[in-house]
Task: structure prediction
Amino acid sequence: MTKPEIKANEDEVLFSHFFDAAEDLVPTLVPGTPAYRFAHLAMSGAARRLFSTEKAERRAFGPFEDFFFPYFSMGSVDSVNLFALDELILFHIYRTYLGCRQKVLDLGANLGLHSIVLGRLGHEVRSFEPDPIHFELLRHNLGANAVSGQVTPINAAVGLEDGEAMFVRVKGNTTGSHLAGMKLNPYGELDEFGVTVKRFQPLLDWADFVKMDIEGAEADVIETTDPSSWVSKQAVMEVGSEASAQRIFNFFQDVKVNLFAQKIGWRKVSSLKDMPFSHRDGSLFVSKEDRLPFML
Result:
């Protein structure tokens, strides 16, 4: 018996149901568990049917109505991969946890998906993307989603000091592009070119909340900051390696700011083994609070 073709509007409904149920679902979506694998397959399939068409259409995307995100190939991954389950979980956290009119840094903004969501929620966002190809698409996507008034795109990387640095574009997967030296053995065909770099501390001073996805540079930039800065800040980030995880764990232990890992169901990190060591372990949340409200 031939299975009925799933219509696009059914996928829009699936996203709506996901965000409606996310308060109950998110604590169960721990990487590697059956619940996580099931949700990943279901939502990835829906995202591909909605956002991989050659001619982009406006779609209902859960609470983010009239959503426009054109397809773009980035080598072995594409723009549809940006709708992965871990990102949907973060969108739920942004929606239910962040207060009104937060000042948000989107570091490693890529094509702008997080910035669009944050802008739609009414936050003031500074969106950093060093790759000029990604940056032009980022600017287009912000305009097409009517968030240019909330989001300021900045064609720069975030690093240790203001200035210039070499940037490595990994042509086979441009989501893995990075400042030169941040990855020991970048793979495949590479382009190298200079980019503007902005020092992290002044940006952190401005922000209330930081989303950080900077491909191996996270420990380096965090260690340049005044530890006291973090007492009034919150952040969510990917961690690229065990060595980086160790450095971040040590830094925040000294600051006495808490870490919460998706890897352990968003519970408080108590030792290095609780830390994520790669994007496959999910995100790390930074907060002075003893418990995350979205887990209550």
Remarks:
- The longest helix spans residues 8-25.
- The longest strand covers residues 190-199.
